[in-house]
Amino acid sequence: MTSQNRPDAVGSAGGWLDPGLDVVISERRHLINLAYRLLGSLAEAEDAVQETYTRWYAMSRREQEAIESPGAWLTTVASRICLNLLGSARVRRETYVGEWLPEPLPEPADGGTVSDPADRVTLDESVNLAFLVVLESMTPAERVSFVLHDVFRYSFAEVAEIVGRTPAACRQLASSARRRIRAAQPAAAPATRQAGIVRDFKRAWEAKDINALIGLLDPDAVAIGDGGGLAVTFLHPIEGGEQIAHAWIEIAHRRPGNMTYLERTVNGRPGVVAEQDGVIVTVFAFEVAGDRIKRIWVVRNPEKLRHWTTG
Fold first, then answer.
1. At what angle do helices 42-58 and 70-92 cross, to 10 degrees?
2. Dihedral of the alpha carbons of 59, 62, 67, 71, in degrees to the nearest 10
3. pLDDT tens digit string along 95-108?
């Protein structure tokens, strides 16, 4: 697998940096970005990348030096690990308590530090929660083919090497995935408009103004909660704008006095978080189309909120 088409390929002027620590430094950001999009979980992405480097350092120096492009080798191995993990994840999620949602990510920390893996993920359109939710509906081979080709610009010949299919089959898989994306995602409102609607929703919620909430919600809106059995939330999706508005008013009445709602960016889009005693306990992500909210994703599983800190 080559790497010249990858958006964040890093190498020296004459080619790839020497095998060893330099490869770890130059490739880790790319691998975390790739694995998170493939798995929808930063924790699983970290594990996949760690396993990739474990396999690299398990080789002898001679074996490492025989690899023409260490970066391409790392990407191939990480992608195959993710492909295997996706197959087992589908089985694990059948026993997950309630709905399973991708792990939401906050804005990168100020100062450009990358000590936290969350800071390594580039927050573009291929990482918004609506996009990741659609990826969850795909087969592992569809997801890997689509992400590698459409997001990271690898050729179908390179994708075929990872997926174990022919380039033509990978092209069909990516095309099928593309149709799913188009069918499931309405045209997004401009970012400033999204932020205004989410802000209006937060204010109406805090004011317990049910009519305002209904006016901001699409009649066919859906709200999905993810507590993972570790935090209280609704186990089944709430369907319909009016039903969601009533549920949110009920939440407002039950809100503890030490809880506040704050506007935050969630996976690159406007969202809201609930903070209790200085700790973020819930993340709300929104899909806005036109002037209405079509989807609300509520993540309360504390294992998925470990990167949300108040600093």
1. 130
2. 60
3. 899 999 999 999 87
From the list 148, 150, 173, the residue with the least C-alpha distance to 158 is: 148
Tell me the whole-structure pTM to 2 decimals: 0.88
User: Are the C-beta atoms of 31 and 52 separated by less than 8 Å?
Assistant: yes
DSSP secondary structure letters along 242-300: HHHHHHHHHHHHH--TTEEEEEEEETTEEEEEEEETTEEEEEEEEEEETTEEEEEEEE-
The pLDDT-based confidence of 20 (bands split at 50, 70, 90) is low
d(CA 83, CA 141): 7
**Nearest partner of 251 among 212, 304, 243, 106, judged by Cα:** 243
Q: What is the three-class DSSP state of 15?
A: strand
Q: Do 134 and 151 form a contact (C-beta atoms < 8 A)?
A: no
Mean pLDDT in the chain?
88
The Cα-based distances of 148 to 154, 159, 165, 214, 254 in angstroms read: 6, 7, 14, 40, 44
Strand partners, 259: 276
CA atoms of 214 and 225, how far apart (whole Å): 19
pLDDT in tens, 222-267: 999 999 999 999 999 999 999 999 999 999 999 998 999 999 999 9
Integer Cα distance of 266 and 280 in angstroms: 13
d(CA 68, CA 74): 12
